[in-house]
Amino acid sequence: MRKFLTIVKRETWREIKSLKIIVIAVIMLAIILGTIPLISSSFQSSSPQLRLLVAPFNNNGSMAMKLLVIDNTGNPVSISGNLSYIYYNNDTRVFISNFKTSSYSTITLYSNIPFSNYVNQPRNFFEASISGINISTFIFIDVSDSLSISYWDIVSPSNSSLPGIAILVTSFDGKVPSNFSIYINNTLAGIPNNFGYFRAYGTGNVTYKYMNTSGLITFLSPIKGISITVQEVITSLSSSLISLFVPIAAIIAGYDAFAKEKVSGALDIILSRPLKRETVYWGKILGAFIPIFIYFTIISLLSLLFLMHYGIFFTPLEIISLVASVSFLTFVFIILEGISGFFGRSVATPIIWGIVIWIFFNMIYSIFSLVVIFISGTNILSSGAVKIENIIGLGNPIDIARYITYFSIPNSQILIYGVSFADTVIASLAWIIVTVLIFIYLSKKFE
Hints:
Layout: H1 2-16, H2 19-46, E1 50-59, E2 62-71, E3 80-86, E4 93-100, E5 107-114, H3 115-120, E6 125-130, E7 133-136, E8 138-142, E9 147-155, E10 163-171, E11 180-184, E12 187-190, E13 197-201, E14 204-210, E15 213-220, H4 230-264, H5 266-271, H6 277-309, H7 316-341, H8 349-376, H9 383-392, H10 397-406, H11 421-445
Antiparallel strand pairs: 1-2, 2-5, 3-4, 3-6, 6-7, 8-9, 9-10, 10-13, 11-12, 11-14, 14-15
Helix pairs in contact: 1-6, 2-4, 2-6, 4-6, 4-7, 4-8, 4-10, 6-7, 7-8, 7-10, 7-11, 8-9, 10-11
């Protein structure tokens, strides 16, 4: 074990210092950091991805308010900003407070604004500034029932054409009203949770019932077309960049750590020592894997920190899927490059084979899918063609890596149409097992 760890440590340190891999990682990071502001600004100019919910109540004659910031599917997010109140009659803006919201409950802010000003305004506007972006809110006041109802339209995380509503409600005494319920098309949708928040999805009239009264809040219409979030665009971009750059870095690492030394004879010198072949081979493979994993994990974390600056947040599942995609591609392409080392006749042969493999899976393989679609007589623009292409993609490690990330995207039905999560897991395991078995077979054959 000590000898194995020594080999892993030596190879890891050598690949970490590899200028070629560092350049590839820096280029990928530069593309991500340069593209994020453009994507973010284009989405922010069309519709806000964050929603502000503010429910004021009476605090000894002054206005206090419960506050919650949610994403476009209704999930509360933790984010910092500042809040202002805007008088409807003269557009006077009054700064209230800086804030940092919670991802699991409301926060409470206090002001010196008379509560009567809020009640007597025909319309009330609150505006939050978050990372330089201004977000307002809609507030419905039921004076007779002493209720403040703040609401925003949202979209279903699993169906981009299904609208929804997010509601934050409080009574004028700051408590969550009991016996308050929400209906969509006269069907009970639910009641607020213990801090007054509620969300539901559907179409039609959204009404509330409280005590012996009821009222109309808004109307939800079906969303036409496909609603794509900025998170989905960036995840798709990240998946494409990972599929492009990670295999190249893995091929270079596999070449430096194993294939080049195998062809040049340097590996034979190492094997002449009292070491097991498996110890040397897998020590070098793991030593090549670790630096790629470290570099591209760091890139992912730096990108996430950069995205937070723009108010863009990702779920743990999306982060895990990106890391899993990087790990899968890195391992498979290092093994493929290692396999090519057994057939090399010169030092340059393995790297040439690595480039050929990368070109085949990145470019030529998709042509094979088109040929199958053409032979089957399926309309290339139909969903059937997408299904055929995705199923054939299970034979391509680069497509499998994309599927791994796509499954974490809520609205990814068309991207993975015809392929299940189980299919992706089986295909990825098959690639890992088959390539490892081939590598083991060749290592014994060429002893």
